[in-house]
Amino acid sequence: MKICHLCLNGPYNEGWNYQENILPKYHVREGHTVYQIVTPYMWENNKLVVSKDKRYKNAAGVEIIRCSAKKGILGGIRLNRYPEVMGLLNEIQPDILFIHDVQCLDMTIVAKYLKKHTECTVYADNHSDFSNSARNWISKNILHKILWRAMAKKIEPYVKIFYGVLPARVDFLIDMYKLPVEKCKLLVMGADDELIEENENPKIRRKIREKYKICEDDFLIMTGGKIDAFKTQTILLMEAVQEIIQKNVKLIVFGSVDDNLKSRVNELSDGKKIQYIGWIEAQESYALFAAADLVIFPGRHSVFWEQVVGQGIPMVVKYWEGTTHVDVCGNVKFLYNDSKEEIEEVIGEVLQEDTYKKMKKEAMVASNRFRYSDIAKRSIEA
Question: How far apart are CA 314 and CA 358, in angstroms?
């Protein structure tokens, strides 16, 4: 079958670990012919740039088509249109259309195409919830309640299932866009099977531990992601690990750090018990997590949560309503308060031999559901 992924809600970069990168890859592996229509924009050296590539087949075998953008302003808000969408859909004539996020004015064009091509099976996903969207009056009441709700309603008659990638994002589809409950379902994000299997090799674990002078009998905790004003809880984690008496409990922190927090992060990184190793490429995270005994994310949700579950590693995360899906069967413990004392207490619980063995066993069971080979099949099974 011909599957077309439509990604018009932001920049597109090759090699990133997002759902729109990995789902098409595994649809190709299932034997489908896969196209991906994306915007001309990409990130390069922390700047938004226009890609020089127009149309090409990437390493996964997906034909990437970057369409041109027409910039516009509506009520002071910058909104892009993509004039080539109709022509590209007519050219490809997909059997399945998978829309990544409906927050785009060109849903009106997509609806016109689908009205004439009722044989096309359509799925759409949503990556917005109240923690990352609709956080001010204009965003909530103008963009989402009026504009993006209208776009969702335009395509709703043709969409078989709207997927939220978190339970909270399923609720957002229902509450904010007023879509039918029976059409809204959960499709989790996950981990790339290929990278899981590559980094399960014990040699990778040894290599990472040797690089950072972590002994085999050390209990290694890993955390990663952006450390900024919204994720200062990482500093609480570093302070908690410093307080733990057991000398063999070590922490490695990776990711970018806001300038205002750099001095504190550097101060807490003693190079022995705690190491801050800076920013890494997304794919490197698989090796780092594979070398860990426990992964902790004490702040807001990130795509790393599902990746770690997919890698079969016990995890501690901050409790957020609508994100508890990562706890499949006891593989995860939750933090409820932003406090150093609670983090230290939970780590102490996990260090109990029986507790850790149980978490590790359940983490291996949970991993199967969070592998993209399985998620890709489920995404179009309906």
Answer: 9
